[in-house]
């Protein structure tokens, strides 16, 4: 059987031999290719692309394997012209897929921007990179279709009423499913307000997260508390108010916490208490810098208590919630020590 396989391989044309060797090579290096050469910025997506490439390799090799079994064990009449065309079709699709992936990686490296996301330096997509990718993708699809037409010798496909016309009709009929998201993605990339590394708050979706990745169809957020990914379609993202909490590449963020303290507590005592709260919170949360003194302001002298606001700076935008939790915990623990209470004082009492 081994001799038969070797004999079959030697009788293949130069094209067939090249296709077999190429598929075996890609099958072995698919993981390395998408992890090191053309990475996507997401480990999960790299694994998905590697699996897709390996699946295409296995399918193409299976065509040659079936051709060998059919011609050398059943009819023994040489290579089938049909299987030859099928293998050529698969190779065109494989090369088109690889070219699209390599070209996308090239456009990101050429026109993308260097940004720090969650402490890691990475190249992110921009309007220019995605537009360049769309142009290259359209050219790749057009060339692939022309090659397929030449392989199968079906020039009728070029007619307006042929298969290509049918494909265009399908694309037009399904534009509601993909066009809105793609256009919205291009608009957001062009505006540049929502970009990888930016912390956003979307109250209607209950999202406080960092933009991890943007594509033409969807945006991936990374929740700052639960550390899970949230995927939102671009058309839905543009339809709701989005609060941008920091600028791109600015690691720190300004925030505040508020306390209700009774009128019987003098301001000097409140200031000493706020300083003690700050020092203890800095011990709990490492992204609070003890040297960056917070600012205490009186916001509102209410009917029942005075509303004090403590403005502070978080050194990492990814620790916003944790910083608030640390300050609230420190404020609760130190209230007795400093002779005050955070409970709203009672100004009315029921008389029995």
From TrEMBL:
It comes from Marinicella litoralis. Signal peptide: none annotated. SUPFAM superfamilies: Mechanosensitive channel protein MscS (YggB), C-terminal domain. The chain crosses the membrane at residues 6-34, 55-74, 86-106, 131-151, 157-174. This is Small-conductance mechanosensitive channel. One of its GO terms (cellular component) is membrane. Keywords: Membrane, Transmembrane, Transmembrane helix. The keyword Transport does not apply.
């Amino acid at each position: 059987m081994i001799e038969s396989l070797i004999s079959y391989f030697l009788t293949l044309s130069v094209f067939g031999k090249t296709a077999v060797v190429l598929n075996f090579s890609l099958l072995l290096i698919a993981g390395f290719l998408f992890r090191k050469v053309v990475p996507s910025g997401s480990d999960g997506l790299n694994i998905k692309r590697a699996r897709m490439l390996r699946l295409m390799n296995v399918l193409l090799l299976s065509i040659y394997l079936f051709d060998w079994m059919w011609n050398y064990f059943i009819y023994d009449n040489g290579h089938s012209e049909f299987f030859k065309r099928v293998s050529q079709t698969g190779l065109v699709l494989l090369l088109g897929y690889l070219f699209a992936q390599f070209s996308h990686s090239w456009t990101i490296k050429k026109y993308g921007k260097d940004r720090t996301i969650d402490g890691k330096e990475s190249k992110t997509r921009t309007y220019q990179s995605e537009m360049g990718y769309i142009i290259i993708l359209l050219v790749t699809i057009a060339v692939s279709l022309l090659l397929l037409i030449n392989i199968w010798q079906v020039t009728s496909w070029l007619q307006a009423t042929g298969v290509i016309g049918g494909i265009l009709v399908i694309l037009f009929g399904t534009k509601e499913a993909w066009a809105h998201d793609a256009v919205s993605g291009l608009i957001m990339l062009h505006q540049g307000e929502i970009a990888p590394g930016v912390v956003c708050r979307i109250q209607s979706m209950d999202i406080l997260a960092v933009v991890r990745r943007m594509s033409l169809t969807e945006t991936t957020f990374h929740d700052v508390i639960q550390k899970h990914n949230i995927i939102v379609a671009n058309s839905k993202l543009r339809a709701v108010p989005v609060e941008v909490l920091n600028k791109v590449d600015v690691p720190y963020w300004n925030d505040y916490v508020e306390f209700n303290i009774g009128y019987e507590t003098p301001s000097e005592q409140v200031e000493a208490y706020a300083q003690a709260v700050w020092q203890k919170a800095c011990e709990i949360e490492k992204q609070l810098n003890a040297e960056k003194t917070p600012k205490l302001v009186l916001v509102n002298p209410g009917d029942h208590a005075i509303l004090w606001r403590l403005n502070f700076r978080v050194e990492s935008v990814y620790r916003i919630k944790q910083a608030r939790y640390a300050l609230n915990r420190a404020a609760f623990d130190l209230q007795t020590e400093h002779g005050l209470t955070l409970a709203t004082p009672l100004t009315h009492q029921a008389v029995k």
